[in-house]
Amino acid sequence: MQTASTNICERLCNKSIRDITLLLNIPRSTDSGIITKWKQLGTTANQPQSGRPRKITERGQHMQKCTVHRNRQLSAGSIAKDLQMSCGLQISTTTVHRELHGMGFHG
């Protein structure tokens, strides 16, 4: 984060973006991004993640897809139970349905 703090100090000393990029040897887009973030948020630190993390992992999605390919007649409830037994994931039938819909499986 040394670059960000140096960048802001230089900006406060009324140096141009071009001078700062030459001084710090960073791209102009990086310099502009740091300054914009500092002006909007008052800090250059990363902000907390917005929204809830996904419940199902990529491995769980792959297992779900394989389960559906093996037997397309299974209900969302039975797929949820299968994932619970194999991966230990507690997933609702609505989540299973939403994930399958996102993968292109309908009906």
Automatic annotation (TrEMBL):
Biased composition (Polar residues): 41-50
Name listed for the protein in its UniProt record: Transposase Tc1-like domain-containing protein
Organism: Staurois parvus
Disordered, as annotated region: 41-61
